[in-house]
Amino acid sequence: MSLGSPATTDLVTETTPVATSTSAGPELVQLLTPEGERVEHPDYPLSLSDDEYRAMYRDLVLVRRIDVEATALQRQGELGIWAALLGQEAAQVGSGRALRPQDFAFPTYREHGVAWCRGVDPLRLLGLFRGVSNGGWDPQEKRFNLYTIVIGSQTLHATGYAMGITMDGAVGDADTAEAAIAYFGDGASSQGDVNEAFVWASVYNAPIVFFCQNNQWGISTPTGHQTRIPLYQRARGFGFPGVRVDGNDVLASYAVTRKALDDARTGQGPTLVEAFTYRMGAHTTSDDPTRYRLASELEAWKLKDPLERMKAFLYKQQIVDGGFFEALDAESADLAARIRQGCLAMPDPDPLSLFDNVYAETTQVLRDEREEFAQYLAGFSGGQH
Amino acid sequence: MSLGSPATTDLVTETTPVATSTSAGPELVQLLTPEGERVEHPDYPLSLSDDEYRAMYRDLVLVRRIDVEATALQRQGELGIWAALLGQEAAQVGSGRALRPQDFAFPTYREHGVAWCRGVDPLRLLGLFRGVSNGGWDPQEKRFNLYTIVIGSQTLHATGYAMGITMDGAVGDADTAEAAIAYFGDGASSQGDVNEAFVWASVYNAPIVFFCQNNQWGISTPTGHQTRIPLYQRARGFGFPGVRVDGNDVLASYAVTRKALDDARTGQGPTLVEAFTYRMGAHTTSDDPTRYRLASELEAWKLKDPLERMKAFLYKQQIVDGGFFEALDAESADLAARIRQGCLAMPDPDPLSLFDNVYAETTQVLRDEREEFAQYLAGFSGGQH
Amino acid sequence: MAQLTMAKALNEGLRKSMEDDAKVVIMGEDVGKLGGVFRVSDGLQKDFGEHRVMDTPLAESGIIGTAIGLAIRGYRPVCEIQFDGFVYPAFDQIVSQLAKIHARSAGQVKMPITVRIPFGGGIGAVEHHSESPEAYFAHTAGLKVVACSNPLDAYFMIQQAIASDDPVVFFEAKRRYWEKAEVDTSAVPAPLWHARVVRPGTDVTLVAYGPMVKTCLDAATAAEEEGRSLEVVDLRSLSPLDFPTVFASVRRTGRLVVVHEAPKSIGLGAEIAARCSEELYYEMEAPVLRVTGFDTPYPPSRLEEEYLPDLDRVLHAVDRSLGY
Amino acid sequence: MAQLTMAKALNEGLRKSMEDDAKVVIMGEDVGKLGGVFRVSDGLQKDFGEHRVMDTPLAESGIIGTAIGLAIRGYRPVCEIQFDGFVYPAFDQIVSQLAKIHARSAGQVKMPITVRIPFGGGIGAVEHHSESPEAYFAHTAGLKVVACSNPLDAYFMIQQAIASDDPVVFFEAKRRYWEKAEVDTSAVPAPLWHARVVRPGTDVTLVAYGPMVKTCLDAATAAEEEGRSLEVVDLRSLSPLDFPTVFASVRRTGRLVVVHEAPKSIGLGAEIAARCSEELYYEMEAPVLRVTGFDTPYPPSRLEEEYLPDLDRVLHAVDRSLGY
Ligand SMILES: Cc1ncc(C[n+]2csc(CCOP(=O)(O)OP(=O)(O)O)c2C)c(N)n1
Ligand SMILES: Cc1ncc(C[n+]2csc(CCOP(=O)(O)OP(=O)(O)O)c2C)c(N)n1
Ligand SMILES: [Mg+2]
Ligand SMILES: [Mg+2]
User: Fold this and answer.
1) Which residues in chain B are closer than 8 Å to D244, comparing Cβ atoms?
2) A376 contacts chain D (CB < 8 A)
3) What predicted TM-score, i.e. pTM, was given to this entire model?
4) Are the C-beta atoms of residues B5 and C51 closer than 8 Å to each other?
């Protein structure tokens, strides 16, 4: 063991990330093997209609298409940066589809797939990465909070929101009661805020699901630098259940999240779901993962691709025919074109909007600054400089 | 369950504090019953000489005497405030005596008993509460850090220090290797910093013992508002062992801490020790616990008094005679007198010392401020005002 | 009309807000059964229940972070930070979230959260219990910051802060908690963002807030005996600063001394000096002087009388100002 | 002598410090294998090992808190905060511990910790990646705060900061990371706490630091064409501020414009304005003017060119100053 570096003891499961990060251990909940075989899990029965299976696959495909298009737009200078969800489609679509309309989701900056499930127009997401907005949609309307960039913060917001659900008496009924879900990453699990959220959620028995996408990396930092035991086990230190699900398995992600949400809404309190998955792309378009991880790791994970296995399942079950895929391709292409056009057409904000919405009730100091700046700008058009 | 208040589920062990706080559960490690009977625990064998037993009892008595004297001095206006350790003597003396000279302790503001074991003159502690200093001793000399008032901060300092032990190669040898110990309270367990310390200690396998005195209260807040499972179990969420010890049992506190320290120094990594004890006094001399807890709770805990049970043990084992107690009474009285005299004789700091030690290398800005203030003060003595 | 201490006036103000709006909830360490270490929320849990007055776990980031979530859900949380020196663990949630969510959401998400902080020294406390962190918050765009200095203001300002749809950091001059004054609860309060001339005068303006208002008033009384007429302005709002009121006063007197307990460098006094020096460049008869805490950590309590601006230091600065 | 970017100069400076003192360790998020998101620590983990360049868990309070423990153990940690907007979770450890431990211990415990923070805007980033939080730290007694603006300073200042027995918050102008200059590593560096006149002039003094130094130099070049001679002072040290150098310059020119990206209210500019207005009361020919970011959250990047002070805004202020 090298001094000062993370420990290698018998407790450590993920110290040398390359060697171990693709193996999730026997505790992993899986309903669909990488080969597309449907398997059963006693705690997570699931039966979906063919339409539902197809809809899930459609989500996976469209969400990936959005992501690919956004990455391309960034490369072409239309976005400042993009945080790709490549590889995490199943975790996001599975959990996103498990949400009921009345539930409220608190994302990080990477939950484009969940946004899709909540009905947020992808163009709204692009606005943030293009730099025309720091937000972009009405969180209340979509019951999908704004992206939160400061790691971990949103887990406390979600917990407070969930406390409010309890205070409003909106816990109990299996159909109408509400729940909150907080998304965060493996890296985020080290932040004080996330652990405080666990304290609060547990003490207040809040109707919340903590959904951790363990994509094995926090930028260049492997999960083994954040924890020496599987992350889902963190929950047991706080007195609520944790479960590790195959995050590349959209059916398992759906079933496990749905149960956790139902437990929450019926008053059983919080659950931590660790979706074991993989960030197949760079951290963001600014990142260069070849500096810190081996190509072989990516290759190993490609065999577990969330789209491929669902596709194989649909084929094997004969749920789809060639026409389905063709139609989906066309829909994808249309979506991508719409996104591209919309992105290029997005106007830059008005300079004076700098001063808008700093407060609900603005101040004299800001009014004066705005006025002074407006005059300054007017001076230019008047040719003063 | 009242909305918005801490949960009452089957997981909750400490919701209604008055009813449950005296019962620690079967997991409690005990070597001495409240009646002073010596019991054995397979994991914590302990055999001390008669001298050692007497020395421990002496510590308990003297530490309580210091505390009583300080409380009296506060009542008489000689101290601004005092945070009494009443009831926690065994947890502190047990853990403090378990430390080796080479170990380093990071206290809160209440570890007067540990300070005693580290050889810090009680008068130095009083200086802080009198308001003549924010520190008072050389932490390096005593290997006892300064009191830290911001809840939880010191757990990270201790963890960093322990990482340094590893980096220095001072881990391994059962006799000479070093360990750190971080003290904190049940309330502190909710702070982000404490949980981040758990993350770091676990990932770096740092040679550290987290010693949590669960005295059932954080000011007026019962432990059930901080956690719904026993606190020692927090450790399992981070992948290291936790143990609950009877904090009113000096022998068990000693044995459990000693083992945890030895594990740390020999490279087994961190342990969380929860010393289950009781704050028999007010939070500080500014506090009025009758506003929030029942007298009956205190009565129940009095039956578990850490001094009484050790005294009963010494008697039963015929380790002492009346002369021992007489001599100890006299020593106590002397100590108290010395503290009182020393406290009253403590000079106020020089006004210009305000500007001392803000930096290792002071600045021109501060030199100027100091000079200006010195002149201002001189103006008074010159009768300018 | 009743004689109330400032602590009691705050308590009554909180009670009024809770009666008026069922969405108002109080949260913090020891605010419930104990009523807060300064008893500002005394009796409120008993009367409004545990779901409206919550004794939270001990973690300030958690308090503010969950309050933000409650605000998203439509609540109007009033968070107590037990002492000034314990707000820093919540700094990220305050500065990066609370202050920015309204702008981030283009006004779609309101943050009607009040963060109450007893602040300042002079009570003989140990480290971290006597700080004046207001400059950190007043420098932060998106926050509003106020400080109350007396029972009447306390009663109304806390209600106005709670009613505000913006996040308000609400500083309470802790060593003035026990000072009493008449509180006419039927009075019509001044707008929350307005400073107030609390004593008119002609020779020099003293600008202060929180605990230093009384110090300045005492100085003005003492100065009167020497035939000097000092005007005292209580800023009340630290962000936004009410420059029109300050400028008007300084235009009258031509001279300004700013007084605060916080360290001098980059404190509120610096901003007021900078603005007045610019705006009243042709009108000032002396430079703006500052009487403040030193650029040192708050000292152990046996030195706090030296550290804290007092009547003598204020008058000394007045002398200097008049010497120009 | 070599042409180095500022990022590379910092990298070389770090390397030199690590070679000179085995107690120097680097810690932070992604500083090791990746070499930091700006590559400032590129190659150091490879050469000095994982125990001297640590990829820490993702938690800023943990980074500073454990660094404090390492310092108590005799180490000299250099902590990287990945971006300006992510320092706030560590605010408590910085303000309540790092800044105060030396005083608390009456000088017995040194805190030779350097906290590196890439800061400022202009790189087209998303929220929280373009902030200028220096005023928070410069207002905090017990901390020293510096900002480097060019490769030569970067190379020496980082070494001086690391060698300092006081905690130093070290701001790096992130949009200047890729600008190149000659770095003579054998030069004798100026003391870390000294400001520097980087361009002499006679008509107006521009005081700036970090990213705005280049903006001011560009403005001075442009002004020259109009026959105006601007003196540019690079503060370098933000706490302590080197007033003698600033005063001397303003005595020469009689006029002062302070420029920074951080919001105006209660920023560094306020302090410099307040001090100069007082100290040079009889010597100034115009009020101190400030060209700063607005009192708003940092905007989305498509607005940052409007938000950030630029050459035109600086020259506009120079015009105004000369108009008095
Ligand atoms: C408080 C804070 N510190 C640092 C960062 C910079 N940062 C952005 S993403 C990231 C890694 C996050 O890793 P993880 O939580 O695993 O999420 P992922 O990016 O893998 O989805 C870091 C360090 C940040 N955004 N916030
Ligand atoms: C960060 C912070 N918040 C609040 C306080 C005020 N405070 C002092 S002691 C205390 C309760 C601590 O409870 P616990 O950790 O159980 O320790 P105990 O006092 O019981 O020994 C509180 C809230 C503080 N010192 N620091
Ligand atoms: Mg990750
Ligand atoms: Mg306690």
Assistant:
1) 364
2) yes
3) 0.97
4) yes
Q: Give the number of other CB atoms < 10 A from CB of residue A85.
A: 28
Least confident of A10-19, B265-274, C185-194, D27-36: A10-19
For residues A83 and A192, membership in a common domain is answered with: yes
CATH number for A88: 3.40.50.970
Give me the pLDDT at residue B23, please: 78
Q: What residues make up the domain containing B336?
A: 50-349
Q: What is the pLDDT of residue B26?
A: 86
* CATH number of the structural domain D196-323: 3.40.50.920
The amino acid occupying position C157 is M
In a domain, B156, yes or no: yes
Top CATH class, D2-183: alpha beta
B159 to chain A: closest CA residue: A4
pLDDT tens per residue across span D24-55:
999 999 999 999 999 999 999 999 999 999 99
**Mutate which of D58, D128, D175 to disrupt the A interface (most A C-beta within 10 Å)?**
D58
* B244 and B125 both lie in a single domain: yes
Asked whether residue B364 is domain-assigned, the answer is: yes
| A298 and A369 housed in the same domain | no
Query: Which of D24, D61, D296, D311 best probes binding to A when mutated, by most A CB atoms within 10 angstroms?
Result: D296
Inter-chain CB proximity C54 and B366 less than 8 Å: no
The C-alpha atoms of residue B173 and residue D243 are separated, in whole angstroms, by: 55
Indicate the residue of D66, D107, D240 with minimum beta-carbon distance to B160.
D66
Phi, psi (rounded to 5 degrees) for C15: -60, -45
Domain ranges of chain C: 2-183, 196-323
**Which residues, other chains included, contact A330 with Cβ-Cβ below 8 Å and sequence gap of 6+?**
none
**ipTM for the assembly:** 0.97
CB contact under 8 A, A157 and C72: yes
- Per-residue pLDDT, A322: 86
Position with higher pLDDT, B23 vs A324: A324
Contact D128 A292 (CB under 8 A): no
- Distance (Å) from the C-alpha of residue D247 to the closest C-alpha of chain B? 13
Is A197 a member of any domain?
yes
| Ligand 2 pocket, residues with Cβ under 6 angstroms | B 110, 149-151, 185-188, 215, 217-219, 279, 283; C 29, 58, 60, 82, 86, 89
Would you say B219 and C29 are in contact if contact means Cβ atoms under 8 Å apart?
yes
| Chain mean pLDDT for chain B | 93
Say whether A227 and B238 touch across the interface (CB within 8 A): yes
Q: What average pLDDT does this structure show over C137-143? A: 98
Task: Tell me, yes or no, whether B233 and B373 share the same domain.
Answer: no
Indicate the residue of B134, B164, B365 with minimum beta-carbon distance to D73: B164
**What percentage of chain D has pLDDT greater than the value 90?**
99
A222 lines ligand 1 (CB under 6 A): no
Question: Domain tally for chain B?
Answer: 2
DSSP A164-206: HHHHTT--S-TTT---EEEEEETGGGGSHHHHHHHHHHHHTT-
Structure tokens at C134: 């207001």
A39-43, A289-293, B5-9, D9-13: segment of lowest average pLDDT:
B5-9
Instruction: Name, in order, each residue with C-beta under 8 angstroms of C124's C-beta and a sequence gap of 6 or more.
Output: B80, B81, B131, C301, C304
Task: Tell me which of C102, C128, C129, C260 is the catalytic residue.
Answer: C129
* Nearest residue, CB atoms, A160 vs list C69, C164, C243: C69
For residue A26, the model assigns a pLDDT of 86
B41 is catalytic: no
Q: What's the one-letter identity of residue A168?
A: D
Q: What is the spatial distance between Cα B129 and Cα B135, in angstroms, rounded to a whole number? A: 10
CA distance B350 to B373: 13
Single-letter amino acid code for the residue at D266: I
Indicate whether B316 and B358 sit together in one domain.
Answer: no
The preferred substitution site among D56, D61, D79, D82 for testing ligand 1, maximizing ligand atoms within 8 Å of CB, is D82
Report yes or no on B321 lying in a domain: yes
What is the atom index within ligand 2 of the atom nearest the CA of B88?
21
Q: Is residue C129 annotated as a catalytic residue, yes or no?
A: yes
Instruction: Evaluate whether C2-183 and C196-323 have a shared fold.
Output: yes
